[in-house]
Each structure stands twice: as structure tokens, then as C-alpha cells.
Amino acid sequence: MRPEQFAEVISNCRAQAALLAESLNQCFDTKYELEFGLEMPLESAAAQLDMPGLLVGIAVGSSAFLLALPAELLPPWHKAPNASQASRLATLAMEWSLNCPPLDMEAGESTTCKSGELWKTIQRCGPLPDALGVPCAVSGEHAQIWLVGPVSSMPSEQAAASGEAEPEAEARGPRSYPSPPPSARPAAPDEPRVNRILKLPVTLIVQLAHKRIELGQLQSLSPGALVTFDKSCEELLELYVNNSLYCRGEAVKVGEKFGLKVNEVSSPQRRLQSLIGKS
Fold this sequence. Notes:
Radius of gyration: 22 Å
Helix content: 25-40%
Shape: elongated
Number of domains: 2
Strand content: 25-35%
CATH architecture of the largest domain: 3-Layer(aba) Sandwich
Number of strands: 11
Oligomer: single chain
Structural class: alpha+beta
Mean pLDDT: 82
Number of helices: 9
């Protein structure tokens, strides 16, 4: 990633701050608003990042950029997430990998990892010359999220937890994160076409559960009859678009109405297929 490309990422993050905040709030059950400040030399962020937290890494070509989230902004479960919570963290990284870069810049791998000391872990990722830090104010909080880049490699959960660099990191050099071949992904449309597509209405269907019964049993249903399902009340509900699974989530009460809080989303390719139909 060239410095001018990271400058485009910074500009797009400022423009998409509300969307990035929405992903953050869905992940951690918060109500934060985000506001990205001015970029500065990365060393200026050292003192503020001398703390534990999470690092979201997003690869672009052979390098990457990071978003550092101090622990004081996060719920306690981020230190040892269960399977559902780990899925939330993966979803956050994926959604930010789609929304942080501009439309004409394709992100590769994305990850979220815990760090005992954010600044040291960032240093292990190999900041490139002239790397920058961009503070992002979080409404009602003293701590800030930091956008950092470009760096030569993605953060490692093992290295961040152990406080040691990855084996043979220097000898191996920066890792490369190749993008899918052009034949495996749709061509990026221009922005006006994207805006027109985004205005198309789609029907969402949330499935509580399903089962097969005999036709005779169906005909015998009457007011007061009870139909039981094998699905546990703790399992996530499924949301379908065009009869294709789009995401999973848990039922929540929104005022006097029902809502779905999204916990997991399918891959970008599968979501695209569900929107445009399988062909």
C-alpha cells in the first residue's frame, strides 16, 4: 500500500464514520459515535496506545492497515470470547474491510486479535516509512480508536499474546495477501451504478424454525393447537434474501416491535448472490 493509498483510506473512513460506528455498536452492544481527526506521525500515538485492547487488521495488496481499539472501550468478554462472540469479532473485521477502503480499492484478508499492549503489537507489524496514526474520537469516552498504516504485515494473535515476534518474521519479510483472481469476483461497478443498485427494494424473511409434518396433521391444526420444533431457543435465527441465507442473529425487542440483532453474516460473494439471484 502506497502512502497515497492510505490517504484514500483515511478520507473514506471519515466519510463512512457513521457506518463504521454501526458495525462497532452491533459487535459490542454500544452506542458510540465516531469522528476521525487529523493524521499525524505514528510516534505521536505511542503514549495513548500503551495499553491492552484489540487490533483489527485489513490487508491491501502486500501490506495492511490497522484499527486499534483500547480495552477500556470494550466489554469484558473481548478478552476471552466464546464462539458467538468470536464470530462477532470476525464479522466486525470483515465489515470494516468492506467499508474502510474506497470502492476502487479491494481489501484482502481481515482479522481481529487481542493485544496485551497495542503499541508493541503495532511495532511488530512493521510500520512502513512515513506511517501515520489517525485518532478517532469516541462519543462520551476519553480513549480513542486509532487508524494506523501502512504496515508491512497483519497482526498475529500468538505474537500479540506472547509478546514475541513471529518466528522468522525478519527473514520471511512482509507477508503478501493476494486478492482472488479476476474471474472469481465481479468487476467493481462505478459509484453511480452502485447508488442505483442500493435503492432497489428487497424482501427480508426471518425464519424461526422449520419441520416436516404429515398433511393430515396440518389439516388438524385449529386455534389453540401447539406446534413444537426441535430448534433451541438459544439458537440464532436465520435471515433470507431471495431464498438465500444472508445472515444470522438473535431476536430482540425494539420498543413494541420485533427486531433481529445480526451476529453472523455470510461471505461477500454469497451475499451478492442472494441479492442478484443465482445464475
